[in-house]
Amino acid sequence: MPGERSSPSAGNRLAVVSMVIAVLSLGASLLQNLNYARSIDSVQRNILRTESLRTCKELIEIFFRFRLKAEAANMAGSDGMAAVELRALVYQFGALGTFLANFRVEVARERYSALTWQLNQIANEATTLSQPEFAKLFGEADKQFTTINEDCVKAATGHLL
C-alpha cells in the first residue's frame, strides 16, 4: 500500500511543476510583449523626432533664404521674377510648416499659418515698400519665427510629444 500512495503523489507533483512552468512561461511572454511594445514606441518616437528636426532645419533654411531674397528684392525694386521666387519660398515654408504643425497643438498650428500668411504678404509687397516699412513688416515676421523656432528647440531636446 505505501507504493500506491507515492505514485499518485508523484503525478500531482509533476502536474504542479508543469503548471508552475507554464505560468512562469506565460509571465515571461507577457513581460517580453510589454518590453517589445515599449521598444517599438521608442523607435517610433525617435523617428518622429528625427523627421521633425530635419524639417525644422529645412524650415529655418527656407526662412533665411526668403529673408535674403526679400531684402534683395526690396533694395532692387520691382522685379516680377523676384516676387515669383519669394512666393515659391513662402509655399515651401507653408508646406513644411503644415507638416510640423500636424505634430503640435492647435495654438502652434495657428502660429505656423500666421507666419506663412505674413511671409506671403512680404513676398507680395517687398518690391513696393520703403526700407522702414519693410523692416517693420519683417520685424513682426521675425517675432513669429522666434516662437516657431522654440518649437524646434523643444523637439531637439526631446519634448516633442
Kindly describe this structure.
By secondary structure, the chain is mainly alpha-helical. It has a single domain, classed as Four Helix Bundle (Hemerythrin (Met), subunit A) (Up-down Bundle), CATH 1.20.120. The chain has four helices and no strands. Helix 1 (2-76) runs antiparallel to helix 4 (131-156) and helix 2 packs antiparallel against helix 3. The chain is rod-shaped and about 105 Å long. It starts with a helix and ends in a 5-residue tail after the last helix. The mean pLDDT is 84.
Considering the chains and any ligands shown, give keywords for the structure.
4 helices; 0% strand; mainly alpha; single chain
Secondary-structure map with pairings?
Layout: H1 2-76, H2 80-101, H3 106-125, H4 131-156
Helix pairs in contact: 1-2, 1-4, 2-3, 3-4
Short synopsis of the structure:
With 161 residues, the chain is mainly alpha-helical. Helices cover 89% and strands 0% of the residues.
The main pleated sheet reads as: none
Mean residue pLDDT: 84
Structural Rg: 31 Å
Q: How many strand segments?
A: 0
* Total count of domains: 1
CATH topology: Four Helix Bundle (Hemerythrin (Met), subunit A)
Annotated CATH architecture: Up-down Bundle
**What's the helix count?**
4
Helix/strand class: mainly alpha
Q: What is the H-and-E element order?
A: HHHH
Low-confidence spans: pLDDT under 50, at least 5 residues?
Answer: none
CATH C-level name: Mainly Alpha
* Overall 3D form: rod-shaped
For the termini, the CA-CA separation is 70 Å
Q: Helical proportion?
A: over 70%
- Strand proportion, as a percent range, falls in under 5%
